[in-house]
Amino acid sequence: MKKTLGLFAAGALVLALSACSGGATPSSSGSAGKGKALSEVVVGFAQVGAESGWRTANTKDIQDSFKAAGIQLKFSDAQQKQENQIKAIRAYIQQQVDYIAFSPVVQTGWDAVLNEAKAANIPVILTDRAVDSKDTSLYVTFLGSDFVAEGKKAGDWLVEQSKDAKAPVNIVQLEGTTGSAPAIDRAKGFADAITANPNLKVVASQTGDFTRAGGKQVMEAFLKSQPKIDVVFAQNDDMGLGAIEAIEAAGKVPGKDIKIITVDAVHDGMAALAAGKINYIVECSPLLGKQMIDIVTKLNAGEAVPARIVTEESTFTQEQAKAALPDRKY
Ligand code: AHR
């Protein structure tokens, strides 16, 4: 018992784990929690960080949903570091939570810790991002977007907009976190789509780590190194918003001199789209909380859940953003 408490205390120090709905008492067994009263179910959630408006909205939605459902949620913020997420998951195993949910910072390197969760008989739910583990028995389900489809939607829009282009259209890409599923998949979907028009060419591509500061910094460098930039494809709104700052500082007009396409459709991105500074946004929904509750409730009742649950998403033009903004929840 002493040893267990000691380990828990050490984990808590390193990770600053916090229970986000009151009275989070770890379950007394490491079982899947089947048939428990929902108020006794404990879920440990290892979040990526707070790198973007999307992530903040995602965290809030998950915390609010668990509170409303009366299910205990333990929350940790990995500050975009895989080692922090692994420590958080190990702490949740140590605490014998009923379920572990996490949004993997990067795709690779999860097998060891997922095998530890499996050995402890704790089902794992992947939210938002995938892992590349060959052994799919290491997690129960993956709830989140189809990132390849998101990149493709961005590319398809540009192909349509550029159908009359006679000269090369130079694109710069602001990539998300290197090695993360959305960065890999959005780049793929976008690249596949733009092959439809040989005039469309990605002339530079670099990571801005899904942050506004990163997007601004990389765009400043692109503006210095690239003689002609026609389009920015930012793999999230925050990097697009950073790029807007860099473009304006360089004396150019975002949305006109340089067209901007982003992914997410969070409030600040939608406001920039409505103001004409962004040209098109592909939606990536951060509202995963209710579906997580549904999954936990079903698993707790011993019911099966689909191995893959794809989030429904749309796209926004400038006109559509103006109409949607007043009712936008995030
Ligand atoms: O995994 C989803 C991505 O992560 C969002 O597009 C981005 O804004 C976030 O940081």
Question: In a few lines, what is going on in this structure?
Answer:
Helices cover 41% and strands 18% of the residues.
Verbal overview:
The protein has helices spanning 2-15, 53-69, 82-94, 111-119, 147-161, 181-194, 212-225, 237-249, 267-274, 289-300, 318-324; strands spanning 18-19, 42-47, 72-77, 99-102, 124-127, 141-144, 169-175, 200-207, 231-234, 259-264, 280-283, 308-310, 315-316. With 330 residues, the chain is an alpha/beta fold. The strands form two sheets. It has a seven-stranded mixed beta sheet, sandwiched between helices. Strands 8-7-9-10-11-13 form a six-stranded mixed beta sheet, with helices on both faces. Residues 1-32 have low confidence and may be disordered. Bound molecules: alpha-L-arabinofuranose. Residues 51-52, 54-55, 128-129, 182, 210, 236, 238, 263-264, 284 line the site of alpha-L-arabinofuranose (AHR). Alpha-L-arabinofuranose binds next to α2 and β10.
Q: What number is the mean pLDDT?
A: 91
Helix and strand sequence: HEEHEHEHEEHEHEHEHEHEHEEH
Largest beta sheet, briefly? Answer: 7 strands, mixed
Strand order across the largest sheet = 1-3-2-4-5-6-12
The N- and C-terminal alpha carbons lie at a distance of 44 Å
Number of helices: 11
Number of strands: 13
Weakly predicted, low-confidence segments:
1-32
Radius of gyration: 21 Å
Please identify the structural class as seen in this structure: alpha/beta
How much helicity do the residues have? 40-55%
Question: For this entry, what is the oligomeric state of its chains?
Answer: single chain
Globular, elongated, flat, extended or rod-shaped: what is the shape? Answer: elongated
Percent of residues in beta strands: 15-25%
| Distinct ligand kinds | alpha-L-arabinofuranose
